[in-house]
């Protein structure tokens, strides 16, 4: 068994994030070709996560009426979730986070409008009043 130092741990985490980024880039390029060939100009996904899980709550494709094949729809939902998670890791934990990913396929730009939920507690203790 190897002894993983803090430096080794962080180096491993950086390699993992780099691998994730490379996979996202490959998937993005494949989906871009597929969606453009289907005539899609914009993709929007709404997402929500909390309590250690989450979902893509809805997807829209523009122009209206275009619906990619089921397999492509599943791949793009997985891509959207992974892309958001890469930018906001752990957003699905505890009170979670939510938002919208918008992908303009004409110029291949993605924007994420993201919010994190936080619990605020104001606590006081009074004794011997």
What does this structure look like?
- The protein has 129 residues and is an alpha+beta fold.
- It has one domain.
- Helices cover 39% and strands 27% of the residues.
- It has a four-stranded antiparallel β-sheet with strand order 2-1-3-4, with helices on one face.
- The chain starts with 5 loop residues before the first helix and ends in a 13-residue tail after the last strand.
- The mean pLDDT is 90.
Could you give a quick summary of the protein structure above?
With 129 residues, the protein is of the alpha+beta class. The chain has one domain (7-116).
Please supply descriptive tags for the structure shown above.
39% helix; 4 strands; four-stranded antiparallel sheet
Walk me through the topology.
Elements: H1 6-37, E1 42-50, E2 53-62, H2 70-87, E3 97-104, E4 109-116
Antiparallel strand pairs: 1-2, 1-3, 3-4
Helix pairs in contact: 1-2
């Amino acid at each position: 068994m190897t002894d993983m130092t803090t430096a080794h741990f962080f180096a491993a985490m950086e390699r993992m994030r780099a691998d994730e980024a490379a996979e996202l880039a490959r998937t993005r390029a494949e989906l871009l070709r597929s969606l453009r060939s289907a005539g899609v100009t914009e993709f929007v996904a709404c997402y929500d996560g909390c309590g250690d899980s989450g979902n893509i709550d809805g997807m829209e494709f523009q122009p209206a009426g275009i619906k990619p094949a089921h397999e492509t729809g599943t791949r793009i939902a997985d891509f959207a979730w992974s892309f958001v998670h890469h930018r906001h890791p752990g957003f699905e934990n505890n009170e979670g986070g939510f938002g919208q990913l918008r992908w303009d396929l004409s110029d291949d730009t993605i924007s994420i409008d993201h919010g994190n939920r936080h619990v605020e507690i104001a606590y006081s203790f009074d004794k011997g009043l």
